[in-house]
Amino acid sequence: MSEMVGRKSRQRTRLHGGRCPLILMYHSVAPYDHDPYLVTVRPQRFDEQLRWLRRRGLRGTSVGELLGALRAGTARGLVGLTFDDGYADFVDHVLPLLRRYRFTASVYVVAGRIGGYNAWDDAGTAKPLLTAEQVATVAAAGMEIGSHGLWHTSLTSGSAAQRQTELLDSRWLLQEVSGQDVAGFCYPYGDVDAAAVSAVRAAGYRYACAIRPSRLSGVHALPRTYIGDRDRTLRLLAKRCRHRIGTAMAIPDMCDS
Questions:
Q1: What SS3 state is found at 128?
Q2: Distance in angstroms (rounded) separating the CA atoms of residues 88 and 202
Q3: Which of 112, 134, 116, 193 is nearest to 160 (CA)?
Q4: Is 23 in contact with 80 (CB distance < 8 Å)?
Q5: For labelling alongside 145, which of 65, 152, 204, 228 has CA 20 to 30 A away?
Q6: What are the φ and ψ backbone dihedral angles of 218, each rounded to 5 degrees?
Q7: Which of 102, 116, 131, 98 is nearest to 26 (CA)?
């Protein structure tokens, strides 16, 4: 029995020594005056954050590439970069900086609202979303396009049929627009439960992004670290440490696939 416990302990150490990647969660990058939901990072701050990664020998990459590197054992020094909602400012303020640093990222688009605005943020500033042409431009630039649902609806409410519509219709639409095989999903609002995870897996997504580590953490509920406009050197260091501690406390095989 003690030998079995020892093996499990060693497995946990091995997995969390390199198998649970750091994935940063962004939304919008743009100049702003009003941002009640704290989803916007100023371009200058974003540039500083990317420089911080590069100075530490880290490279930002899409989640799809990151998971592939984990399976191949070549993920050392890689950090996932994700952008929820598919804001149009990605083209103007994010893409040029990613090209400068030779980073890539995953952009999770609300498929039914392409070319619209963030109608789900009632108290926030109305922000335009990527058009179909811009989604194609982002994909052609080497970024990964993922689904953030059809209408930015929580998967933990509603019927199984509604979940299926959100997952399947959004994936089909984004594949048509981007020309990519859309493999990743991102849970709107970070809402995730066992039924949502099962539905995402059944819909054919190879991975999905959540927010916080939990008992559901795994390749279909990857934990991420929120990054905001206030995050400079010390806060970035603290968040990197918190990620290591938080994922080490989750289930042993959370990132093993």
A1: strand
A2: 30
A3: 193
A4: yes
A5: 228
A6: 175, -170
A7: 98
pLDDT of residue 18: 42
Question: Do the beta carbons of residue 220 and residue 201 sit within 8 Å?
Answer: yes
The secondary structure of residue 92, as a DSSP letter, is I
Output the CA angle 191-119-46, nearest 5 degrees: 75
Q: Which two tokens stand for residue 236?
A: 């970035």
Is 245 strand, coil or helix? helix
Strand runs labelled E in 69-226: 78-85, 106-109, 144-147, 184-186, 207-209, 225-226
Q: How many CB atoms lie within 10 A of CB 33?
A: 6
Sign of CA dihedral 46, 49, 55, 58: negative
Residues with Cβ within 8 Å of 50's Cβ and at least 6 positions away in sequence, in order, are 60, 97, 98, 101, 103
Q: Calculate what percentage of the chain has a pLDDT beyond 90.
A: 82
What is the CATH topology of the domain spanning 2-248? TIM Barrel (3.20.20)
Task: Give yes or no for a contact between 218 and 195, defined as CB atoms under 8 angstroms apart.
Answer: no
**154-184: pLDDT as tens digits:** 999 989 999 999 999 999 999 999 999 999 9
Q: Which pLDDT tens digit goes with each residue over 108-123?
A: 999 999 999 999 998 7
Residue 83 forms beta bridges with which residues? 26, 107
Residue found by looking up tokens 């927010």 in the block: 211
What count of Cα atoms within 13 Å lies in the side-chain half-sphere of residue 28? 24
What are the residue boundaries of the structural domains of the chain, listed by start? 2-248
| Cβ count within 10 A of residue 187 | 25
Cα-based distances in Å from 233 to 51, 76, 126, 129, 251:
10, 21, 30, 30, 29
Q: Are 160 and 200 in contact (CB under 8 A)?
A: no
